[in-house]
Each structure stands twice: as structure tokens, then as C-alpha cells.
Amino acid sequence: MIEINGRTKITGLFGYPVEHTLSPAMHNSAFKSLGLDYCYIPFLVHPDYLEDAVKAIKALNICGVNVTVPHKEKVIKFLDEINEEASSIGAVNTIVNTNGRLIGYNTDGRGFIKSLSESGISIEGKDILIVGAGGASRAISYYLSQKTKKLYLYNRNKDRAEKLVQDMNKIRNNVSSIEDISNIEKFHIIINATPLGLKKEDTLPFDTASLRRDQTVCDLIYKKTRLLEEASQKGCATLDGKGMLLWQGVFAFELWTGKKPGVEVMRNALLKAKT
User: Fold this and answer.
1) pLDDT in tens, 79-122
2) Would the N or C end of the chain have less CB density within 10 A of its end CB?
3) Fold observed for domain 109-240
4) Among the options 32, 55, 58, 72, which is catalytic?
């Protein structure tokens, strides 16, 4: 049990929704294992009150927060500074309060690449499709575009996909948007970067009928979604978002505390936690 006192440093999460988050279990276990007087709290922040919530970080002397759906892009304009990586990505998932100055970072992309590496999934020379063009898609696109052969983006809002393509092609000119994903079988790796799958009643982000056994399907949602279940049944290699959640959390923890957390402590807390 966490003991909170007048010296406890507060970290947390801004999102809408936040009920499903596993981050408190992960971070609070890491704080406890290192004997740090910190705690991590999820804050339900409606989009209409995002600016007020960011101001509250300073007003309440909160040490820092993670930022999740749907705030990763919109939060940028309320910060004092964003680092080069987050600026290139165009999204922030971690805010650090440095003496009253709010600095934005993005640890999502590094977290996803680390999770791929841990799972033995190679992206070198591969054709990859990302479904979705929000903040998480931006973060992983930033890294994937630098390492893969060709990166394709699909989003129901075509203008948003095109904007992301333009931004990523400033780094390496190998990113394209597509308007039709009925030929899903042509990609080596397919990644769901939409919220579809958080709820049981959600539709699939794409039709799984033509998936092949030699494909890999990833879902950034950190549970075994219907998409991953159907992909597994087709014989595909699958990866959920728990690894990305773990590693982006490790990097955020270091930014807030200046200390390296126990990775296995955080991993075990995630495995035991329930959404």
C-alpha cells in the first residue's frame, strides 16, 4: 500500500478514458521497489478541460504526467517546450515539470521499437502498414520510417493521414498513404494504432479474411483483442501493446525521477494488473 504524505511527489496520466489503464500498477510498483516517495494517479481529463489540466500541473506542483488518447497532439500548444524528438513526431506522451517549466517528450516510439526487438520481430526491409494516424501512429511512424523498406498509412480521415505522410517524409521519403486496405495480404507487418478493440463491441480495424501465416499483426492496445485472436487463428505472429506500454513507461520514469526503474518489477506488475 502506498503511503502518501506532504513530501510525496505526484505523477499521473491525463486521458479520456483512463479506466482501462495499467500504468498506475506499473509505476507505483517501480516507485515502491526503489523506495521513492512518489505516486502515480490516473486523471480523467475531458478534452474541453485539457488546458486547465495542464495548468494544474504547475499549480499543484505535480512532478509530471503521461498523456494518452485523445490528448497527445493537442497538449503541445499548452506546454513551455517540447524536445526535438517530440517536435519531429508531432505528439507528446510525457510531460516533465522542471521548476515550473513544462517540457514535453515522446517515449512511445522508442517503447514500440524496444518491444519489437524483445519479441524478435525484424522490420528491416519490410513493407509495413499502420492503421490510424493519431498520436501513437505518429510516434511509431517516426521510428519505423527510418528502419523499414516502405511504410504505408491508412486512416478514415484522409487529410490526417496525408499530413502525417508529409511530416514523416521530411525524415526519409518512404512513407505513403493508401485509401484501400482490402489487399491486406501484401504487407509483411500490419499495426493497429486506432482505439478499435478497447471495447468488446468495437468493429475490427480491418478485415482479417485474407491474412497469411507469414504475416505479423500488432495491436497497440495492451490486451489480446479480437483482431489479435483472429490473426492468431490465421497462423500469424501477433504482438499486443503491453511491451510498448512497459518500455515507454520505463523511459518516462527515468525522465521524472532521474533513476532507472526495475524493468522486471514493472513487467510483473503489468502481467498481474487487470484492465
Assistant:
1) 999 999 999 999 999 999 999 999 999 999 999 999 999 999 99
2) N
3) Rossmann fold (3.40.50)
4) 72
